Structure formats: structure tokens, C-alpha cells
């Protein structure tokens, strides 16, 4: 701290300090502080300037960042599980994607409030990180897969399967797929691969045949500019189940012979209302509008009217000279009217198969697919928007709106960074009286992973989960809306210096594709549903592929077809948030390695009768190495928790402080007992514990 006392009689003392020093001094003023336990969102800098547009801005980059984190966690896990003698080298390769992801967290990066060429640079850095992590992944597979001496060929990530593009599956007749599950529990996943042909042989890791379905690639997908140079005409669809925690599973795929009974071509929409259903869920579509009209949870006979529409607001065009002339831009969301324009379904068709049923909707410059997989408890809605039409010289902000009969009384719920659920009230702020000047933008909140509404009368909760961060709200009772794409022609004068006008690969406008997941259940049961789906979306199984020349029997003889990274199963309410090798010194022996392990109890207190209970975890759960000691650290793993001395504050009670029924336990140094065991640890609801573990292979 630098203190310069006034020397010239001015009465001014100059104090140079730091945030920590300032906080320390404020803490020692011995005063009582007002407490604030509600949210700061949504921000507004003036009556017509709500900073809620960036919740959605640059949706393709937001989706890429979310997907990149999935790959990064896989890369860090496999780097640790591999426990390479050259760990210092592999850790440096992991660092490429870590640094790219770190830079992407900048407040003008994933937020979408950067210039276009800067956004391109962020995406390029992430792509370079993918390639670097692909090398680490292959090194791990060469350790985990061989039964004998033969190494497997290098496998590749196919990162463009969302637009039905993957050179390996399109080009080769025999393909090996390895799927890695980054979760600490068994996982299931549906696989969709771009292929040519309609007859295949698909075999599981045990050699059993896997049922599959072949569906044509849509004309809407074929129009996406980034798909140039690819020729896949169909998609191969099948399900993988029971993928071991932190484990691998092999699938053998080859072109087959015989009948093509698994090929399910597109069919015209029926002349009557159409219902697609499995054992758990049904969704009914109106034969006139081709839109959804009803959803039912078949397990409990819970049925609600449901209408979903793609709509768009017109972005306000202004010169920003005054507040009333504020334009809608990268930061600011300002529609020029409170009611959006409905996009009309131009055509619709269906797919009916044993594994998946689909309803396709085509709009002037957008399309949607409603999918119901076999035995799924949720409906997948894949939206494709763009290029957004600006021929009328108007910017547009596209939303997906879900209308139900639920009476939610202005109350809706969104997540906070995928963890705690925040209650929101329309046109309301807890600590001050709100004069609402923007009834739409002023009620938008960030939706990182889910948004839902409830109605106690029918005991119903309708939840929408997202695959990336989006802005969302319940502007009217019974509604949920999520903004999925934006294209604007004016800057809002908050520093970007150019309009949010993403033009895409062909310069005509960016096409963005993403997914929503719909869940209908009772209020009591919904937490478990959205927690499990949300966790799966955050840590989806990752697919790697290679073409092969050997036959299936040879591969299954030479290589392991199933690998599990855990010897002890985790409790269902605990998630391995981090498993990351601490980069070793090149001279550090392989028997003296360290890693960061973060464990998360991902349920809130009281939201589920069973899953909200404390969980007991055995740190010695990993199959590929032995933990010889551990110490609990702060969240950032930069300080032993026992050395942390938090400042104590005197706070004015608000009267609604939450009751915390559990006492936090601090684990100092955990050492092996006489039987070679470490003490078990306890995780309370929403608690994250961070450890540095010592291990050897």
C-alpha cells in the first residue's frame, strides 16, 4: 500500500491501494452493512437501454464455447487417466484449449459483444485447441485400448455432425467409433452420423447387433453454406447405453447387404392431427397449422395445451443521440413493439420409425425438427435459423415461444450458471419499486441451461433446457420464450463499433442450429428430470472415429472394447467437475504425480426428497491410478482451505435468510490409514469441494 500524505496544505491525501486492501479496510470500519441476496439482472443504463441482448448475441460462438468446454474436460480427464511419462508435454497440449477457453470467457468474447474479426479469432483459437486435444486423446487411447502390443490408428473428432458432415463416415465402408463418457455415472446417448447408403451392420462392444434407423438428410441441411464439399445423403441413427463412467465403448459400423427396412423416408403430413409418442411422452400437432397443440406425460397422465412458434421482434433502429433513440445492438435488446411477428409454417413432413419419430417444419428462412426418441422422457426441438432476412432494411431478433395453459402468476425460474435456480418475477425488483419502461427487454434474463414455469393447481411444471446460453423470459402467463438468433443493422454505441450483422460463410447471413429439450412433469418430480438432462447436456459423451482395414473379429481381439475409469461408482447426485493433471516437472517420476479433483453435489437443498440428501464419496474411486494422499483446497486450488481466513461482516438481517441444515466439513490433509484407505468425504447440496490428490500409476 502506498500512502502519500499531503504536503502543500491542500487537505488531500493520496492513497494507492488494491481491491483486497480496500475491502480489508472497509471490513474494519466496524459498521453494519445492508445485505443483498437478490439478483442484479437485468441491467439497464437508462429507461430504454436494457443490457439483455448479449444474453443471445453471436449464438454460434456461444454454442461453440459450450461444446469446446465439453471437449476440454474430456481432454483433461484423458490426460490424467493416461498418466503419461511425458506428462509435461501432454499437459502443454491441453493448455492450448485451456487458454483458448480462458480467453473466450472475456466479457467481450462469449458475450458476443466483439467485432466480427475478433469473434473469428476466438473461434480459430478454439479450433486449434480441438486439434491439440485430439493429439492428447489419441495418446490416451493408445494406452487404454490395446490388449497386446498393437496400437490403434489415430481417431478423429467429427465436429460438424450437427450439419450432417463427417468425412470418415461418408467416405469409408468400415468405421470404428469410440465413445467416451466424461460423467462419473453410466451414460446413454443417441448417435447420428452422416452416411451414404441405407443398409448397415452396427455392432456393440459385446459384438451384439445394435438396432438402427436411416433417415434422409433434409434439404434445409443441404442448403447450409458450411456444408460445401460433402455428399452424405442420409443419417444413421442408433442408441448407445450403459457407457461406463470416465469410460470408453466401441461400436463397429460397416455397410451391409440385404433389405433396407430400417430406412425411413420422409412422409407427407397427415390430413388429420398427428401424434408422435413413446411409452413416456406424447406430442400432438394440428393438421391445419402444422404446429404443436398438446403435450402429455403418459406416465402420470398429465396433459397440457402447448403451442410452439418461431417468431421475431424487429430491432429498434435509432441513432443513439438520446435514450429514446437507443438502437438494438450487440449489448442492448430493444424491440420496436411488444408483440413479435409469427413466422408461418410453409410446409411440414414427418418421419416414423422404431427408434425416432420426427415432425419437420419449414419456414421462409428457418426450419425446425421435433424429435421423440424411443423411451425418452423429453422432446428434442432442433431449430435452424438463418440467413435472417434483412431485405426490408430491418434487423430481427428471433425467438422460440412456448405457450401453455399454466397459470404461473408472473413467476418463472432460470438457472444461475447451470447450478442454483433463481426465481424471477415479471415487472418486479425485490429491493426497489420498478417503473417498467421496456416490458419485453426489461423482463429478459440469462438462461444458461434451463427455464421453467409452474402451476400448483394441476401440479405441473414445464421446463425448457438449452444447449447454450440464451436470453429468455415469461413475458405473459403460461409462456416461455427464448431468443435463439439476432441480426441487427445498427450499433448500440456501447463500444463494439459495428452492427451485429453476422454474414456467415457465403456472406448472405449466418445460419445457426441449436436444440431445446422439453420436459413436462409434476413440480415434485421435475428437479430430478432437469438436473439429469442438464448435466448430460453439459458433459455429453464424445465420439471419435477412424476408418479400418482389419475385420471386426481382429479389432475385438486386439483391443479393449469397453473401459471404465472408475472402480467405485459415484452417488447419483455427485458430479466430477474437474479431473486435471497438474503439469509435472520433466524430472518428476511417474510415481509422484498430482491432479486437481473437484466434486460437485448438483442438487439444491430440498428440491428432491432423495437426491438433496448429503452424499458420501470415496476419493479412491479411480481405476487407473492409486491415490496416496489428498488435501482440500479453495475453489481455485491455489490455497489450502485450512489456511483460508474469510473476513467476517456484520450484516443487517433481511428476515428471509435461508436455513442451512448442514454443517460444512473441512478436510485437511487426508492420509492413508493402516489398511491403505483414505477417509470418505461428505458433500452437502450445491457444495463443491476441491482437492489436490497425490497418485501413482
Automatic annotation (TrEMBL):
GO terms for molecular function: alpha-mannosidase activity; carbohydrate binding; metal ion binding. Its EC number is 3.2.1.24. Coiled coil: none annotated. Residues 49-126 form the Glycoside hydrolase family 38 central domain. It comes from the Eukaryota. One of its GO terms (biological process) is mannose metabolic process. It is an enzyme of class 3 (hydrolase). PANTHER family: ALPHA-MANNOSIDASE (PTHR11607), LYSOSOMAL ALPHA-MANNOSIDASE (PTHR11607:SF3). This is Lysosomal alpha-mannosidase.
Amino acid at each position: 500500500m502506498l500512502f502519500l500524505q499531503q504536503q502543500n496544505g491542500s487537505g488531500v491525501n493520496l492513497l494507492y491501494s488494491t481491491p483486497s486492501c480496500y475491502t480489508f479496510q472497509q471490513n474494519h470500519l466496524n459498521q453494519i452493512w445492508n445485505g443483498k441476496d437478490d439478483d442484479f439482472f437485468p441491467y439497464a443504463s437508462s429507461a430504454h437501454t436494457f443490457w439483455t441482448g448479449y444474453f443471445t448475441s453471436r449464438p454460434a460462438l456461444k454454442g461453440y464455447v459450450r461444446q469446446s468446454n465439453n471437449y476440454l474436460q474430456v481432454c483433461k480427464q484423458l490426460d490424467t487417466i493416461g498418466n503419461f511419462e511425458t506428462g509435461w508435454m501432454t499437459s502443454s497440449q491441453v493448455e492450448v484449449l485451456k487458454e483458448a477457453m480462458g480467453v473466450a470467457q472475456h466479457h467481450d468474447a462469449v458475450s458476443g459483444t466483439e467485432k466480427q474479426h475478433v469473434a473469428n479469432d476466438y473461434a480459430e483459437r478454439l479450433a486449434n485447441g480441438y486439434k491439440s486435444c485430439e493429439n492428447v486423446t489419441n495418446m490416451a487411447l493408445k494406452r487404454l485400448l490395446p490388449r497386446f502390443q498393437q496400437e490403434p490408428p489415430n481417431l478423429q473428432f467429427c465436429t460438424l455432425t450437427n450439419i450432417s458432415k463427417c468425412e470418415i463416415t461418408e467416405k469409408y465402408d468400415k468405421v470404428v467409433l469410440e465413445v467416451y463418457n466424461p460423467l462419473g455415472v453410466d451414460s446413454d446417448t443417441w448417435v447420428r452420423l452422416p452416411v451414404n447408403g441405407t443398409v448397415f451392420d452396427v455392432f456393440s462392444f459385446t459384438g451384439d447387433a445394435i438396432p438402427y434407423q436411416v433417415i434422409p438428410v433434409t434439404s434445409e441441411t443441404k442448403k447450409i453454406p458450411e456444408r460445401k464439399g460433402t455428399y452424405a445423403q442420409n443419417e444413421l441413427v442408433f442408441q448407445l447405453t450403459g457407457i461406463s463412467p470416465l469410460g470408453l465403448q466401441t461400436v463397429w459400423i460397416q455397410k451391409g447387404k440385404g433389405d433396407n427396412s430400417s430406412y425411413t423416408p420422409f412422409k407427407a403430413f397427415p390430413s388429420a392431427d398427428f401424434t408422435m409418442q413413446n411409452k413416456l411422452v406424447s406430442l400432438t400437432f394440428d393438421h391445419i397449422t402444422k404446429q404443436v397443440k398438446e403435450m402429455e406425460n403418459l406416465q402420470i397422465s398429465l396433459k397440457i395445451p402447448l403451442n410452439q412458434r418461431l417468431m421475431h421482434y424487429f430491432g429498434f433502429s435509432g441513432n443513439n443521440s438520446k435514450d429514446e433513440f437507443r438502437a438494438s445492438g450487440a449489448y442492448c435488446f430493444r424491440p420496436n413493439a411488444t408483440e413479435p411477428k409469427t413466422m408461418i409454417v410453409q410446409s411440414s413432413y414427418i418421419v416414423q420409425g422404431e427408434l425416432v419419430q420426427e415432425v419437420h417444419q419449414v419456414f421462409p428462412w428457418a426450419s425446425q425438427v421435433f424429435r421423440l426418441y424411443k423411451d425418452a422422457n423429453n422432446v428434442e426441438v432442433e431449430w435452424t435459423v438463418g440467413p435472417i432476412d434483412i431485405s426490408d432494411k430491418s434487423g430481427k431478433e428471433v425467438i422460440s415461444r412456448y405457450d401453455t395453459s399454466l397459470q404461473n402468476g408472473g413467476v418463472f425460474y432460470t438457472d444461475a450458471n447451470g447450478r442454483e435456480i433463481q426465481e424471477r418475477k415479471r415487472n418486479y425488483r425485490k429491493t426497489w419499486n420498478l417503473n417498467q419502461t421496456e416490458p419485453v427487454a426489461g423482463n429478459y434474463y440469462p438462461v444458461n441451461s434451463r427455464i421453467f414455469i409452474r402451476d400448483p393447481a394441476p401440479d405441473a411444471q414445464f421446463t425448457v433446457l438449452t444447449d447454450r446460453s440464451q436470453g429468455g423470459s415469461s413475458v405473459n402467463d403460461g409462456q416461455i420464450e427464448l431468443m435463439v438468433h439476432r441480426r441487427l443493422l445498427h450499433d448500440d454505441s456501447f463500444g463494439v463499433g459495428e452492427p451485429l450483422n453476422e454474414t456467415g460463410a457465403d456472406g448472405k447471413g449466418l445460419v445457426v442450429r441449436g436444440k431445446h429439450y422439453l420436459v413436462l412433469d409434476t413440480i415434485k418430480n421435475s428437479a430430478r428430470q432437469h438436473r439429469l438432462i442438464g448435466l448430460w447436456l453439459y458433459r455429453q459423451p464424445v465420439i471419435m472415429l477412424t476408418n479400418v482395414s482389419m475385420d471386426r473379429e481382429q479389432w475385438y481381439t486386439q483391443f479393449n472394447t469397453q473401459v471404465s475409469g472408475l472402480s467405485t461408482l459415484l452417488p447419483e447426485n455427485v458430479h466430477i467437475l474437474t479431473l486435471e493433471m497438474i503439469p509435472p516437472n520433466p524430472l518428476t517420476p511417474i510415481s509422484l504425480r498430482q491432479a486437481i479433483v473437484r466434486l460437485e453435489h448438483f442438487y439444491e437443498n430440498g428440491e428432491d426428497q432423495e437426491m438433496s440428501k448429503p452424499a458420501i464419496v470415496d476419493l479412491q474411486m479411480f481405476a487407473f491410478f492409486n491415490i496416496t494422499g489428498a488435501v482440500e483446497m479453495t475453489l481455485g486450488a491455489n490455497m489450502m482451505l485450512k489456511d483460508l481466513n474469510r473476513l467476517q461482516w456484520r450484516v443487517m438481517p433481511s428476515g428471509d435468510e435461508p436455513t442451512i441444515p448442514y454443517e460444512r466439513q473441512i478436510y485437511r490433509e487426508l492420509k492413508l490409514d493402516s489398511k491403505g484407505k483414505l477417509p470418505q468425504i461428505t458433500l452437502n447440496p450445491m457444495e463443491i469441494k476441491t482437492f489436490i490428490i497425490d497418485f501413482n500409476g
